[in-house]
Amino acid sequence: MAKLLIFNWKMNPGTFKEAEKILGESIILEESSDKYEIAVCPPSLWLFDLSQKYAGKITFGSQDVFGGDPLSGKGASTGEISAEMLKNSKVEYIIVGHSERRRYENETDEMISKKTEVGLKAGFKVILCVGEDLNTHSQGPEAVKSFIKDQLEKDLENIHNSKFIIHNSLIVAYEPIWAIGTGIPENPESAALMAKYIKEAVGAQVLYGGSVDGKNIGNFIKYEEIDGFLIGGASLSPAQFGGQLN
Ligand code: PEP
Description:
Elements: E1 3-8, H1 16-31, E2 36-41, H2 44-53, E3 59-62, H3 83-87, E4 93-96, H4 99-104, H5 109-121, E5 125-130, H6 134-137, H7 141-155, H8 163-169, E6 170-174, H9 188-202, E7 205-209, H10 217-221, E8 228-231
Parallel strand pairs: 1-2, 1-8, 2-3, 3-4, 4-5, 5-6, 6-7, 7-8
Helix pairs in contact: 7-9
This protein binds phosphoenolpyruvate.
C-alpha cells in the first residue's frame, strides 16, 4: 500500500503566489513516485482556491473543522469552517487534535472527540493527532503507551461504537510533542513500536509526525507499521524529498 504523506503547512505561506509555488513542487513530488500519496493541508484562506484550481492533480486536506453547535453547517460561529463547507470544496482529509491547537487554542479532548465525530460522519478521512510531552516521554515507553491509550479513549469517545467508521476512515498521527518543530525526531524504532501499539488498540492506519525531513525520512520508511508521515516545516520545501521517496 502507498505510504501517505500529509503536508501540514500550518500558518504558511504569507501569499497565494508562494502557496501556488509550494503546491507546484508538491505536485511534481507526487507525480515522481507511485509509492506515496501526498495530501496538502494549506491554511483555509488558500485551501478553497487551490483545491478548485488544482483538483485532480493532488489531494487536499483541512487543518481543522468546526465541532461545536450548531452542526448544521452554517451559523453564528465567527471564524469557523464547517464540515459542510469543506464538503463543497475538494477536500478529502481533516486534521484534528494537533498539539498546537490543543496548546494554543485550548482545545480539549471533548472538543476533539466532537470534531472527530463530525469529520467522520461527514465522510472525510480524519487524521487524529495524539502524542506525549517530554515529561511523559522521560518516564519511558510504558508511561507513553498509557498516556496515548487515555488520549485515544477520550478523543474517540463519541465514535466508540462505530467500528466500521474507524476502520475505514480514521487515521491516527502519532506526534510526540517534544519532536514537533524541534529538529529532533523520535528514533524510528520507537516510533514504529508506538505505531504498532496504536494500530492494535484502534484498528486504524498510523502516521508518524515530528521533525521528519528529506534527510531522515529514509530511516522511517522501512518500518511497515508506519503507514505514512505528517510533515510540518519540511512540507514547505517539498523538493527536498525528491529522490528520498523512491
Ligand atoms: C506537525 O506540525 O504536525 C509536525 C510534525 O511538524 P514538524 O514536521 O515541523 O515537526
